[in-house]
Design brief:
Length: 143
């Protein structure tokens, strides 16, 4: 990367679940795969109430979700915030029979891919989408 990518990791709700180094490594993996040339990323782990408020206020969707991404700049030089809810991630991890750490890393990658400009359909088509396939490919390199 030609410019510096500044990463802020706020392990509020996930202190015993994932390390800042794990999160930083995942962000850098996506940045390299997506040719992100600098910028600033803040990633914060929050409780279900906080992410539900963000979801309702900014996306007009009701209830908590697992990850929300906001980018105020260009995808290749983002100024972005990613919020992840370990509580909701835990429910997904149980549902898909994966380790919670793996699911949290998946959400970091997922949030970063949104920052890079990717999107996916809702529903069952989601897991067949190019974004999901890219997400799983990057995640496999981190595990």
């Amino acid at each position: 990367m030609s410019d510096e990518l500044v990463i802020h990791v706020n392990i509020v709700e996930a202190a015993d679940l994932i390390t800042p180094a794990d999160v930083g490594h995942a962000i850098i993996a996506v940045a390299e795969a997506e040719d992100i040339n600098g910028g600033e990323i803040s990633i914060t782990f929050v409780d279900a109430t906080t992410i539900a408020t963000l979801n309702e206020t900014h996306l007009e969707r009701e209830g908590p979700t697992d990850v929300i991404s906001f980018n105020l700049a260009e995808p290749r030089t983002p100024l972005a915030d990613i919020y992840i809810c370990p509580e909701i991630a835990g429910e997904s991890a149980k549902e898909h029979d994966v380790d919670l750490r793996e699911e949290l890393l998946r959400l970091v990658v997922h949030g970063m891919l949104h920052i890079a400009g990717h999107d996916h359909p809702e529903g069952e088509e989601r897991t067949e989408s190019p974004m999901f396939i890219r997400q799983e490919s990057i995640l496999s390199q981190l595990l």
